[in-house]
């Protein structure tokens, strides 16, 4: 895979604990981030805590609560083995072996597997678009300016392409910009405009990439198309929310109406 930053999110340098001799603020923030992410899916777990890099009594208690939830030895200490359990969803999303045979199915399988693992952003030091999932998709970058919808899409395409020994950069450049991908699609004649798609949705295939158009050369949001039915597409998209925001908080499955949004479609056919 070309986008392999996620591997850094799976490791801590040393065992972390309260009053530990080898405590590292960066590693502690990773631990606190995963504890808080766990609490989002398990609100009764008591693992939500500040992401401040300080392994104090609250973080120790949150670790013990997590260990109890997972049937681990309840000592409030985070070894690499404990951290492996904390960040297991990220590892599964990026490393679970894929079984599909053709490229479009690989894209859908990859996107569905990420969705099942609940990618979610955090607000850290007042900055949205933060946390280990965002950094994994954005090659280490996070914070309010870093909208991560295209980072998510490219991670999915990269993972699927790599399963077949292909390089996703032959389809598009590594970028976090919807505009760059849209322009690439126009230059390669693999971007179909919304005006044409509204008359013939059969031009869209599962695995293709949608781009929401603001103006002819300005796109604001993106995601993976999973199915097409008449004027409706189903999608899996990152940095969205229930209202379909381009700056939401999670990877979600959504439905979109081709007649209500200016949805252009970038074809992945050159990699098929």
UniProtKB/TrEMBL annotation:
> What InterPro entries does the database record attribute to this sequence?
CHAP_dom, Peptidoglycan-bd-like, PGBD-like_sf, PGBDSf
Q: Which residues form the Peptidoglycan binding-like domain?
A: 25-86
Q: Which residues form the Peptidase C51 domain?
A: 143-239
The superkingdom listed in its UniProt entry is: Bacteria
Indicate what this protein is called per its UniProt record. Answer: CHAP domain-containing protein
């Amino acid at each position: 895979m070309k986008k392999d930053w996620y591997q850094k999110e799976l490791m801590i340098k040393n065992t972390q604990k309260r009053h530990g001799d080898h405590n590292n603020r960066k590693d502690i923030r990773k631990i606190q981030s995963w504890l808080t992410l766990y609490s989002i899916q398990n609100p009764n777990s008591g693992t939500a805590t500040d992401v401040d890099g300080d392994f104090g009594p609250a973080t120790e208690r949150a670790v013990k609560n997590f260990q109890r939830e997972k049937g681990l030895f309840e000592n409030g200490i985070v070894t690499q083995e404990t951290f492996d359990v904390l960040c297991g969803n990220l590892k599964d999303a990026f490393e679970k072996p894929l079984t599909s045979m053709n490229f479009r199915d690989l894209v859908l399988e990859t996107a569905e597997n990420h969705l099942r693992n609940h990618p979610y952003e955090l607000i850290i030091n007042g900055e949205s678009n933060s946390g280990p999932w965002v950094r994994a998709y954005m090659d280490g970058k996070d914070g309010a300016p870093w909208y991560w919808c295209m980072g998510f899409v490219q991670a999915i395409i990269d993972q699927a392409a790599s399963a077949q020994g292909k390089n996703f950069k032959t389809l598009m450049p590594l970028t976090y910009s919807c505009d760059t991908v849209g322009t690439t699609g126009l230059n390669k004649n693999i971007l179909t405009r919304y005006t044409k798609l509204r008359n013939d949705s059969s031009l869209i295939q599962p695995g293709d990439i949608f781009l929401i158009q603001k103006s002819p050369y300005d796109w604001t949001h993106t995601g993976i198309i999973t199915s097409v039915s008449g004027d409706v597409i189903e999608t899996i998209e990152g940095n969205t929310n229930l209202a379909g925001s381009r700056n939401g908080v999670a990877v979600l499955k959504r439905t979109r109406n081709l007649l209500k949004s200016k949805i252009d479609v970038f074809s992945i056919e050159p990699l098929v």
